[in-house]
Design goal:
The protein has 398 residues and is α/β, with parallel strands linked by helices. It is built from 11 helices and 14 strands. The strands form 4 sheets. Strands 1-4-8-5-11-12-13-14 form an 8-stranded mixed beta sheet, sandwiched between helices. The N and C termini lie far apart (48 Å). GO terms for molecular function: homoserine O-acetyltransferase activity; homoserine O-succinyltransferase activity.
Length: 398
């Protein structure tokens, strides 16, 4: 059985969680240096934790969220009737069991839910950064994740887990700092966007920047917002997050109203659904964050570096790569490309394609085969066994 993350289950007091904030890179004269140039003189990170860090400090799992997610991965905020994004996966007795694991989830750099981003105030000008915010790289996210863990007193991760853009963060993290983790779980993600992927993001950005209220990125200081452009971007993107089968099952050609007068309004139920998605998105997400974060995804291509796997080969991390057969945004071919690159280097990797009709966003849903696979993987012993090929290479002194 599959259910949405928005299915309402009354929260108990134990389910209530609170978003916390941490200041990083705030030592005078020691700003955060960004991969593509530029610095940030101190940043704030929004994060949540679930479970308890044990005395050995070896039971931590980091959750890397997707493009429009945030730090609220599980449980409920006080007064809310909707749980966190990954609530199907994270919690007591769930696949990532918080009775055993200490889970950390943070909002990414450039976001708009408590972590420093382009709409934050630039301390040098007293105004929002706008388009003066520096361009970001996938590795900048990882740098911030690592700094947060240091402040939290977590020296090593049992696993890093991420879906979509979050999976890209996990891949970058494992490639550049494999010593940080035992396991990496990459779900519905990619190591390189296709031209079609980039085209979808380009249309969304164009809709935002063409909005008359965009004002060259200075909309916040002019007390306005590019609502129309952001809504169009969300509606178009959301279509790619589900599947034709999912839309048919949920909406079909059902009209929105009993008495229908054909026109150019909201005539069909699916139109009403997209309209609702757009309206809620405008209230919780920032147009500039959408521009900056989608651009990071466009340029992500770690295997373009011939030495990308060198550190990982020296310090292997056990990988689980997963895809969903109805995902046409980052379909199984994207996951297989990652698996092939890891296998070519004789690295330990498991792969599973899950049957689900709900498309790309399946990684946020209650799909038992998917959840069971994650549980089985993360509960393996910390020390990976070398693959047969790797044992042979060692035997041959290579």
């Amino acid at each position: 059985m599959t259910s949405s993350r928005h299915q309402y289950l009354p929260p108990t007091p134990e389910d209530i969680v609170e978003t916390k904030f941490m200041d990083l890179f705030d030592t005078p004269g020691e700003p955060m240096h960004l991969v593509r140039g530029g610095t940030l003189p101190g940043i704030t990170v929004a994060y949540e934790t679930y479970g308890t860090l044990n005395e050995r400090r070896d039971n931590a799992i980091y959750i890397c969220h997707a493009l429009t997610g945030d730090a609220h991965a599980a449980g409920y905020h006080e007064g809310d009737d909707r749980p966190g994004w990954w609530d199907a996966l994270i919690g007591p007795g769930k696949a990532i069991d918080t009775d055993r694991w200490f889970v950390v989830a943070s909002n990414i750099l450039g976001g708009c839910s408590g972590t420093t981003g382009p709409s934050s105030v630039n301390p040098e000008t007293g105004k929002p950064y706008g388009l003066d915010f520096p361009l970001l790289d996938m590795h900048d996210f990882v740098v911030v994740h690592r700094a947060l863990l240091t402040k939290l007193g977590v020296p090593h991760l049992h696993a890093a887990v991420g879906g979509s853009l979050g999976g890209m963060q996990v891949l970058d993290w494992a490639l550049t700092h494999p010593e940080d983790m035992n396991q990496a779980v990459v779900i519905a993600s990619s190591s390189r966007l296709t031209a079609q992927n980039i085209a979808f993001s380009a249309v969304g950005r164009e809709a935002i920047m063409s909005d008359e209220n965009f004002m060259n990125g200075a909309f916040a200081e002019n007390d306005t917002n590019p609502d129309v452009g952001l809504a169009v971007a969300r509606m178009m993107a959301h279509i790619t997050y589900t599947s034709e089968e999912g839309f048919e099952e949920k909406f079909g050609r059902r009209p929105q109203f009993d008495a229908q007068q054909p026109g150019f309004g909201v005539d069909f139920a699916v139109e009403s659904y997209l309209d609702h998605q757009a309206s809620s998105f405008i209230g919780r997400f920032d147009a500039l964050s959408y521009l900056y974060l989608t651009r990071v995804m466009d340029y992500f291509n770690p295997f373009a570096d011939a030495h990308a796997l060198d550190r990982l080969v020296a310090t292997p991390v056990r990988f689980l790569v997963m895809s969903f057969d109805s995902d046409w945004r980052f379909g199984t071919a994207h996951s297989r490309r990652i698996v092939r690159r890891l296998q070519d280097a004789a690295l330990p990797v498991s792969f599973r394609e899950i049957h689900a009709p709900w498309g790309h966003d399946s990684f946020l849903l209650h799909i038992p085969p998917y959840l069971d696979s994650v549980r089985a993987f993360v509960e393996q012993p910390a020390v990976p066994r070398p693959t047969i090929r790797r044992r042979r290479l060692r035997k041959w002194g290579r």
